[in-house]
Write a structure and sequence with these properties.
The chain contains 1 helix and 3 strands; from the N terminus they run E-E-H-E. The protein is α+β, with helices and mostly antiparallel strands. The chain has a domain of about 40 residues. It has a 3-stranded antiparallel sheet with strand order 2-1-3, with helices on one face. The N and C termini lie far apart (about 50 Å). The relative contact order is 0.22. The mean pLDDT is about 80.
């Protein structure tokens, strides 16, 4: 049973030209799926990824430096 007060599941759609992101869109799952399908038709041959949008329950990135030397 779905919780009426729950936030809609959001996803992020990205279109990649090699290692470069040329489009970035986030919306609820239904809209994200439609956008991803449209981008696959528009940019045939480019990689299109669909990932879940973080909900805020994940651990945040620490604000302090965790190492002394950069890689």
């Amino acid at each position: 049973m779905d919780d009426i007060n729950a936030e809609p599941h959001r996803q992020r759609v990205r279109v990649w030209f090699g290692e470069h992101r040329i489009a970035d869109y986030s919306a609820d799952s239904a809209l994200a799926a439609r956008y991803a399908d449209a981008m696959r038709r528009r940019f045939t041959g480019l990689r299109v990824t669909v990932d879940d949008v973080l909900t805020g329950t994940e651990r945040p990135v620490p604000g302090e430096r965790l190492w002394e030397l950069a890689p």
